[in-house]
Specification:
- With about 525 residues, the protein is an alpha/beta fold.
- It folds into two domains: about 1-290, Rossmann fold, CATH 3.40.50; about 340-495, Isoleucyl-tRNA Synthetase, Domain 1 (Orthogonal Bundle).
- It is built from 19 helices and 15 strands.
- Helix 10 links the parallel strand 11 (about 255-260) and strand 12.
- Helix 2 packs across helix 3, helix 14 (about 385-400) packs parallel to helix 17 and helix 17 runs antiparallel to helix 18.
- The two termini are about 45 Å apart.
- The model has no long low-confidence stretch (mean pLDDT about 95).
- The protein binds 5'-O-[(L-methionyl)-sulphamoyl]adenosine.
């Protein structure tokens, strides 16, 4: 069975921001974890390119919508390459094959009697591409998210008969694992309890969209088209654009990872659309929190937006990934604080992990002929570091399985902390000055090197670069978690205590993690 996971398909109204990088990095860690465990993975990301918002942005820039989308989606592609995101697909909803998938899907929904004509009146937020149910003010209402005026709409559209799916959607969201974290379930439940209303799935007078077959003048509402991007993305390069073929490539999705603002679309509208077309439902929708910066919402008007390309350039992949995954519980909102960012990177990665590895491999090389010291039978599974490693392994595997990246990161770090503590207690540098202690020192250094090896492997899904440098320093091979990996699950066996070979050469150490010195604000 394929493990299919998706990021949202990002609007191309603007260049990528840190919010999009956040979701994508987290999905990358999850995809790498699953590959390392030996699962077949299809990691989907992409761009959402139709609708009024994009059309207006292109007009304002004096470009055709297509030229505008080509430009911004290329920025996304480049950014993900530079971050070494291991996505297997990058779908663009302007891909001609997508239009055919949307048409085929619509035909099924229409044949099921779920498309009716109706009059749509209401306040619309173009930035959200969404009708707002109950604007707080009757006069000049604003979007609560975007703080921009809503626009009054009154037009004849095609509606999807969402109201027919009330019971099925109630049952679906009551399933414990479907909406995660569980704390997010309430808001969806409350929305559904109010009674599901049909929603419009077409627009008139909006040329930048996919035309609705058999309904002259209508284009698909951007969300109807975008959600189907998850299915088009399943197609392989050589596949004909056929809905059943696409579905056979990895549907249903194992998880849609999204921000909390678009939960309703994924946990209510999308499953109802799939039910109508007679298709299986995704197993899980995970709604993560929002990032703020130094306590403030990030926005262009405040001039405090963190550019992920810039951040990468100045701080590197490991630092940013570590901070976002290790400091913020994935379901909760999180605040990006520069001081805390550099403190964590320097303490956890440069000091705790970097120093542990460096000083241990230097001592081993100096006293044991540039090689892993010979371990005695005393270094078995009851050694304190063997036990710490087993504990870390269990917690990291559980944490990643549940998208609790923070607990996984902390558990991996704990192993390095335990190894440093052990080293300080044993103080092989003093012991080495005494007579007859060589065997004990060999055992102690072996144990710390072995803990470092396991820490590096546990870090592989979270910080693939640092993990690789650590493993190279230990003379180990690198497990492949990239998009082209052939998953064999060897990683799980390598995580077992005792796999480090005594006598294996130890390459010359060099620092695995540079300190982050940010003299200026990011
Ligand atoms: N195009 C739709 C998704 C369609 S999926 C079929 C969309 N795009 S978006 O570009 O506006 O947002 C993409 C994601 O970025 C959303 O999950 C949103 O929650 C997330 N974020 C936007 N700002 C964010 C932060 N400040 N912090 C974290 N995530 C944020 O919605």
């Amino acid at each position: 069975m394929t493990y299919t996971l998706t990021t949202p398909l990002y609007y191309v109204n603007d260049k990528p921001h840190l919010g999009s990088a956040y979701t994508t990095l987290a999905c990358d860690a999850l995809a790498r974890f699953k590959r390392l465990k030996g699962e077949q993975v299809l990691f989907i990301t992409g761009c959402d390119e139709h609708g009024q918002k994009i059309q207006r942005t292109a007009e304002a820039a004096g470009l055709s919508p297509q030229a505008h989308c080509d430009g911004v989606s290329a920025q996304y592609r480049e950014l993900w390459e530079r971050w070494q995101i291991s996505n297997n697909r990058l779908i663009r909803t302007t891909d001609p094959r997508h239009r055919q998938i949307v048409e085929q899907f619509f035909a099924r929904v229409e044949a099921n009697g779920d498309i009716v004509e109706g009059r749509q009146q209401g306040w619309y937020c173009v930035a959200c591409e969404e009708f707002k149910d109950d604007p707080h003010e009757a006069q000049d209402p604003e979007c609560p998210t975007h703080k921009r005026p809503l626009e009054w709409r009154d037009e004849v559209n095609l509606f999807f008969r969402l109201s027919r799916y009330q019971e099925q959607i109630e049952a679906l969201i009551a399933q414990p694992g479907f909406i995660q974290p569980a704390s997010r379930r309430n808001e969806v439940e409350n929305f559904v309890k109010q009674g599901l209303r049909d929603f419009s799935i077409s627009r008139v007078n909006l040329p930048w969209g996919i035309p609705v077959p058999g309904h002259e003048g209508h284009t698909f509402y951007v969300w109807f088209d975008a959600l189907l991007g998850y299915i088009t993305a399943l197609l392989e390069q050589s596949d004909a654009p056929d809905l059943d073929t696409a579905l056979s490539r990895g549907w249903p999705a194992s998880v849609h990872v999204i921000g909390k603002d678009i939960l309703r679309f994924h946990a209510v509208y999308w499953p109802a659309m799939l039910l109508s077309a007679g298709l299986p439902l995704p197993a899980k929708v995970f709604g993560h929190g929002f990032l703020t910066r130094e306590g403030q919402k990030m926005g262009k008007s405040l001039g405090n937006v963190l550019d992920p390309a810039d951040l990468l350039e100045r701080c590197g992949r490991d630092a940013v990934r570590w901070y976002l995954l290790r400091d913020i519980p994935f379901g909760d909102d999180g605040d990006f604080q520069q001081q805390r960012f550099s403190d964590l990177v320097n303490n956890d990665l440069a000091n705790t992990i970097g120093n542990m590895l460096n000083r241990t491999s230097s001592m081993a090389r100096r006293w044991f002929d540039n090689a892993v010291p010979p371990a005695s039978a005393a270094i078995g599974s009851d050694h304190p570091l063997a036990q710490a490693a087993a504990q870390a392994r269990t917690t990291v595997l559980q944490g990643l399985e549940q998208l609790e990246f923070r607990s996984a990161a902390e558990a991996a770090l704990q192993l390095a902390i335990a190894a440093n503590g052990f080293l300080n207690e044993q103080a092989p540098w003093s012991r080495m000055k005494q007579e007859g202690t060589r065997d004990q020192v060999a055992d102690d250094l072996y144990a710390v090197l072995e803990a470092a090896r396991i820490t590096a492997l546990l870090m592989a899904p979270l910080l693939p670069d640092l993990s690789e440098r650590m493993l190279l320093q230990l003379g180990q091979s690198i497990p492949d978690s990239s998009a082209t990996a052939q998953p064999d699950g060897a990683w799980l066996t390598q995580l077992e205590w005792g796999a480090l070979q005594s006598g294996a050469p130890l390459p010359e150490p060099s620092p695995v993690m540079a300190r982050l010195e940010l003299s200026e604000p990011l």
